[in-house]
Amino acid sequence: MTNIEKSGTYTLGDRSVKRLGYGAMQLAGKGVFGPPKDRAEAVAVLREAVESGVNHIDTSDFYGPHITNQIIREALHPYRDDLVIVTKIGARRGPDASWNPAFSRQDLEAAVHDNLRNLGLDVIEVVNLRAMFDVHGPAEGSLEEPLTVLAELQQKGLIKHIGLSNVTRKQVEDGRKITRIVGVQNQYNLAHREDDALIDQLAKEGTAYVPFFPLGGFSPLQSETLSNVASRLGATPLQVALAWLLARSPNILLIPGTSSRGHLRENLAVADLELPADAIAELNQIGSAAAAA
């Protein structure tokens, strides 16, 4: 059994994917803008990820923009039958590398076609609509119009499944009135656990949850606690944070990203890292302290 197989699988849409996936954001240049410093290494990272058993890749055509998807196509096309590529739309990059909402029908249709063209696909397995009412986190606002556009593109056969990103629980519930939501992708980690109740509800319903920024927003004290646990276990803080997420709920799918093969191997080794009960209890206190603050 390879490392990644030990992480288990979960259903995303109608496909079974390994719970340890790969996020392609870091394959673009600094600030997720422009080309990478080493395109050959980016290609090598993708190929090694898939050869190691990864069958879930998360991307977007606004990474670069366009560049990350073009690298994925160069590295992996024609794609393996078991590979599930998930993309997201709802934003565009400005010439100054800014992140701007792109929710109009024209924007959304163009984004889907850009993803199809740059990835070399006839249909996209999952398209996540990223809410942009607040770039830095979920904020209430109606997603009815953009989700209706995506549902129409789904009916045309360009999209198989639809997910949501950077959203509130209400937006997930409202979205389900328009179309089936197969996954939710939000910031969530040891220190930021606002989605605890949402994760548990999605797990009951058989819906995937994909956290991003596994080390985002930690205070110095929280980082010290994590580092101490990692040191005792002979692991890196990121490995422990990822292992905690795997243990948190069976519907959590991980998409750690990297632009180096060495770091990729460290990420995939998380499947072998078992957290003892006392370590989990100590790590849980990070979230409890954040909630009480």
How is the main sheet built?
7 strands, parallel
Mean pLDDT over the residues? 95
Q: How many β-strand runs?
A: 11
* Tally of helical segments: 10
Strand order of the largest sheet: 3-4-5-8-9-10-11
Q: Proportion of β residues?
A: 15-25%
The helix-strand sequence is EEEHEHEEEHEHEHEHEHHHH
Structural class: alpha/beta
Shape by Cα distribution: globular
Write structural notes for this entry:
The protein is α/β, with parallel strands linked by helices and 293 residues long. Helix content is 40%, strand content 17%. It has 10 helices and 11 strands. The chain has helices spanning 39-51, 67-76, 105-119, 144-155, 169-175, 196-205, 220-233, 237-248, 261-268, 277-292; strands spanning 9-12, 15-18, 22-23, 56-58, 84-89, 91-93, 99-101, 124-130, 159-165, 181-187, 208-212. The strands form 3 sheets. It has a 7-stranded parallel beta sheet, covered by helices on one side. It has a two-stranded antiparallel sheet with strand order 1-2. Helix 1 (39-51) packs across helix 2, helix 7 crosses helix 8 and helix 7 (220-233) packs antiparallel against helix 10 (277-292). The longest helix has 16 residues, at 277-292. The protein is globular, with a radius of gyration of 18 Å. The protein starts with 8 loop residues before the first strand and ends with a helix. The mean pLDDT is 95.
